[in-house]
Write a structure and sequence with these properties.
mainly beta; 118 residues
């Protein structure tokens, strides 16, 4: 049974905006630390932004000030608003949900492509 369902992504010009969403199951959302990682071609998968169950965000230095992560409890969804996108933001973006403490669970979405290009 799929735990995470991603939406959003696509092609955008430099300086543009995109919004990614990740819907989690009802049982998972309230207890999971959730967020986004990305993997560019030939690179490792890196953390982009995470948010705790009580709403505290954490960003990588490369996106701080341009991306905003938020939780929508009514929809069991985590959103990533990406503004002022740059070509180096091009990657496959993966939603992640893991236990805030210990290693009790760790789930990944299937990934969605974000391409920033003219």
């Amino acid at each position: 049974q799929a735990q995470l369902m991603e939406s959003g992504g696509g092609l955008v010009q430099p300086g543009g905006s995109l919004r990614l969403s990740c819907a989690a199951s009802e049982s998972l959302f309230p207890i999971a630390k959730m967020g986004w990682y990305r993997q560019a071609s030939g690179n490792q998968r890196d953390m982009v932004a995470l948010i705790t169950p009580d709403g505290k965000p954490n960003y990588s230095e490369t996106v701080k000030g341009r991306f905003t992560i938020s939780r929508d409890a009514a929809k069991n969804t985590v959103n990533l608003q990406m503004d002022n996108l740059k070509p180096e933001d091009t990657a496959v973006y993966y939603c992640n949900a893991h236990s805030p403490v210990g290693a009790r669970f760790n789930y990944w979405g299937r990934g969605t492509q974000v391409t920033v290009s003219t």
